[in-house]
Design goal:
Blueprint: E1 15-20, H1 28-39, E2 45-48, E3 61-66, H2 71-75, E4 81-82, E5 85-86, E6 88-91, H3 127-138
Antiparallel strand pairs: 1-3, 1-6, 2-3, 4-5
Length: 143
């Protein structure tokens, strides 16, 4: 099989393509028909345009799948204008496992341990002990 224009060569299955600078008013059907007509491609499918979770607006890029034999023809369409915007096309990077994002930042680095703001950790096992600690710091038991 011939090299599909990216590291790793062509794969047996369809290739996922990233399309950047997509107009916000463009629908997946419009993008798919544009790429099929402009590049004489027959295997463009699975076009998805991600939307912002908060606003519901398209994020300005898309993903699609294409047969490995048509990857070069599709990548040569970089710079073609759709809605007055030049498109950027490249082979999509494989998705990284998300893991557990509750701990650490987006790059997977561990977050700093949480610290109490008012000094060392207190023992809350006994309310009386906590009261005694408080009253001794105030200067005695005057209640």
């Amino acid at each position: 099989m011939a090299d599909a224009g990216f590291e790793g060569g062509a794969s047996a299955g369809p290739t996922r393509i990233y399309v950047g600078n997509v107009p916000w008013r463009c629908s997946p059907e419009e993008l798919e028909s544009f790429l099929r007509e402009k590049g004489n491609l027959s295997s463009v499918s699975g076009v998805s345009i991600p939307v912002d979770n908060e606003t519901g607006r398209p994020r300005g890029f898309a993903f699609l799948t294409v047969d490995p034999s048509e990857v070069d023809a599709l990548l040569n369409m970089t710079g073609a204008e759709l809605g007055g915007r030049p498109l950027t096309l490249r082979v999509a990077n494989p998705r990284q496992p998300s893991g557990d994002r509750r701990y650490g930042d987006r790059e997977g680095r561990p977050s700093r341990p949480r610290r109490d703001f008012d000094g060392p950790r207190r023992d809350y096992s006994s309310p009386r002990r906590e009261y005694d600690n408080y009253s001794s710091r105030r200067g005695g038991d005057d209640m």
